[in-house]
Amino acid sequence: MTQLAQALHSVRDSLAAAAQAAGRQPAEVTLLAVSKTFPADAIRAVYAAGQRAFGENYVQELAGKAAELADLAIEWHFIGPLQSNKTRQVAEVAHWVHSIDRLKVAERLSAQRPAGMPPLNVCVQVNVSGEDSKSGCALEEAPALLRAVAALPNLRLRGLMCIPEPTPDAALLAARFGVLRQLQQQMAAEGMQLDTLSMGMSADMPQAVAAGSTMVRVGTAIFGSRHYPA
Ligand SMILES: *Cc1c(COP(=O)(O)O)cnc(C)c1O
């Protein structure tokens, strides 16, 4: 078995253990393999080990890899910050976008989704860390944004995403993830069913699963450390 296949299996085992520890079924939590900065060959190896959903942060990189790997049945998730002038390529290539933080981006994705493709699955990214984070819409603005996104024709609103600030404080992490869970329940009370909570990364996967995550986004624990060009 290759090293990447081994790492994938080990992450799958940890995920199953985290689900079990939380009294949940492993099948309730989808594993998204975050492949940003890693070459197409690494994705091929992880795909060959059974992984189908891959996450990318940069538009050019997503478009390049999607073209290079067009022979594989990959489900592409865009999870990075998205500028409104770069939505077209994402609308044409991605199956999911997790990082909707304002209506303009959602409107453009809906308008640019090619006819004949299924609706683009989307999550609204919420800032659950207050002043410690700049990404995601403010919690107070989330309900209105969710209602507006739900009305767009070529998007399928699936749920919520967050990236808490890195912290070793388990109670703080639980509180941050809890904010997303509470928002999901608040929206359910007004009749909006959101089936996805995209939360948890390599460092905080068990805490996210305990807090109700349905999709964890794991990069480092599968692919190794990232090296960014200087
Ligand atoms: C890079 C990234 C991840 C994966 O992080 P790891 O710590 O490498 O697991 C998850 N989510 C988002 C939004 C990311 O940008």
Automatic annotation (TrEMBL):
Domain of life, source organism: Bacteria
Q: Which Pfam families does the record cross-reference, listed alphabetically? A: Ala_racemase_N
The protein's matches in InterPro entries, at most eight in alphabetical order, are given as: Ala_racemase_N, PLP-binding_barrel, PyrdxlP_homeostasis
Give the matching PROSITE patterns: UPF0001
Q: Where is the Alanine racemase N-terminal domain?
A: 15-226
Function (record text) = Pyridoxal 5'-phosphate (PLP)-binding protein, which is involved in PLP homeostasis.
What's this protein's name? Pyridoxal phosphate homeostasis protein
Q: Which organism is it from?
A: Vogesella amnigena
